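re: ur question from earlier - yeah i can do the single chain one, its not a big deal. heres the input i used so u can compare w yours
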Amino acid sequence: MIDLYYWPTPNGHKITMFLEEAGLDYTIHPVDISAGDQFKPDFLAMSPNNRMPAILDRAPADGGEPISVFESGAILTYLAEKTGKFLPTDVRQRKTVLEWLFWQVGGLGPMAGQNHHFVQYAPERIPYAMDRYVKETNRLYGVLNKRLAGRAFIAGDALSIADMACYPWIVPHERQQQDLNDFPELKRWFEAIKARPATVRAYEKGAALSASRPTVTEQGKSILFGQTAANVKG
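and the output i got, formated as tokens:
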């Protein structure tokens, strides 16, 4: 039913987590971002920002032609609306889930991503940039830790797409120079999500790809970190 164009990165893991939790049938089509698969014309037709993940829903709710969706937050919202799962219909509860979903796609993901870049991958060590993004990641961990106080999940008592969006960005906490022991509510939530059978299955799917091909090679760095408008022009 769902074709998933995917590589095992935090944004990719969001979607396999949803699909496993929802029990949807899906087929993974690897998009090796270090090999430049994200620039292939067929993929760009679905994902014009040359980023994975993307999906192709071959059985949309309206019964029409297949629907493609790009951007992980949009995919999570689309799948939640399609299945009626992990996004409440109550206006207030829905609002809360979407707030925290947008918090992740607009804050936690970009800031942690810059943390990864300057701490792990940048050819030149720039102390100011490293300190800036490590501290901002730390601040965001604090925001999430406070939010989770007295709550099983980010939006309340039920698992939602907000949890699926945030969890993969906490997985590399050590690489982000963060200690989960400093955030007890976040750590409790993290361990609970990690233990869910659907999370285990989702990460097993990614591990199989990671074992076959490294995510970031020296050649891959030039592809990932050297993009300009020339890479996406028609």
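The chain has a mean pLDDT of 94. not sure if urs matches, ping me
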